[in-house]
Amino acid sequence: MAIATALMPPVATVGFGLGTGDLRIAGGAVFLFMTNLVAIALAATLTAGFYGFRPRLLERPAPWRGVAVVVVFVLLSIPLALSLRSIGLESRATAETRLAVNDIFSGADSRVTLLDARADGDKVTVSALVSTRALVADAQARLQERLTAALHVPVEATLDQIVVADPQAAARAVQASAASAPDPVAALRGRLSDSVPFATDALMVDGEGRRAVVLLRPDAGLDLSSAFALEKALRAKFEGVDVWVTPPLEGMETVDLADADARAQAAWALARWRARPRLRFCRPDPAPAVGEGETAPPDARERFLAELAATGVSVAAEDGPACRAGDRNLARIALT
Predict the structure, then answer these.
(1) Could you give the residue range(s) of every CATH 3.30.300.10 domain in the chain?
(2) How far is CA 163 from the centre of its chain?
């Protein structure tokens, strides 16, 4: 029972890694399985030898058997040692990042919302999202410099800052005396939070309660169409408040210029991402073959460019290759 308990979880993880196409998970599980198998075999051999049990035909064990066991352990210890070093680097990077953020944002009442540290060989990649009441201009450079000095390995640090209101201050305002007037901004933020039943990274409201930004998390489960519909619903519910819903960044390769809803959704997403896209339009064929469809008229392109400009998105438009069947009404987008 104990042997099955030690061997089955790594084997199941190998299957999961192969099924999802993640060879890193599958390879690590294979090493763990082999380590458990060899350790169990060695423990059984040592225990049997200690109590005097040995095969009848082998009164004197061959010396190469012990050498083979040592060689196997040495071979297994190399990837295990590398994995242990990576785990140690990731743990140190996580701890040092939290200490560095506290020092860099001292007095700004900030907290680490998301933190991910990955070690790849002799390089460490750190990605952090900090919620703060005041932006620090050189925070990312200071974080990378401090982590490099503390870990003694090259570090690539990415630090994103989100300015949010102080939740503790809002709580103190709610718990103030009943005679005092309620905080309308805090009340608006609470009603917005109740109206967004999805995972968010931040929900921000300006000091006058006229504009709100909802930053959806990647695991919110909403695609671009759903996020677009959520913003329209929130704007209809909160009249007089300019509500922006920022969806997670995802790929957007083409837009159907003949579809007004597709153009509006694309312009909305690019504006919320603050992207500066590069557009490529296929060059119309002066004599298209029968059945290949119509080339998007120039006014459709101009309408799309005008819609992008109205949302504050600056683009670089260029002509691509000649139009082919299936892409005559498409604008190809490259995000920068």
Answers:
(1) 88-163
(2) 20
Separation of alpha carbons 305 and 280, rounded Å: 12
CATH class of the 167-246 domain in this structure:
alpha beta
Vertex 215 angle, CA 214 and 220, to 5°: 105
CA neighbours closer than 13 Å in the CB half-sphere of residue 287 = 0
DSSP-based three-state secondary structure for 73: helix
Q: How far apart are CA 184 and CA 217, in angstroms?
A: 26
Are 254 and 331 in contact, with CB atoms under 8 Å apart? yes
Low-confidence ranges of the chain (pLDDT < 70): 1-8, 54-63, 65-66, 69, 107-108, 164-182, 283-298, 320, 322-329, 334-336
Q: Match domain 88-163 to its CATH number in 3.90.950.20, 3.40.630.30, 3.30.300.10, 1.10.150.20.
A: 3.30.300.10
The predicted-structure confidence for 11-63, as pLDDT tens digits, reads as follows 777 787 787 777 777 777 777 777 777 777 777 777 877 777 766 555 555 66
Which of 197, 199, 177, 173 has the alpha carbon at shortest distance from 186? 173
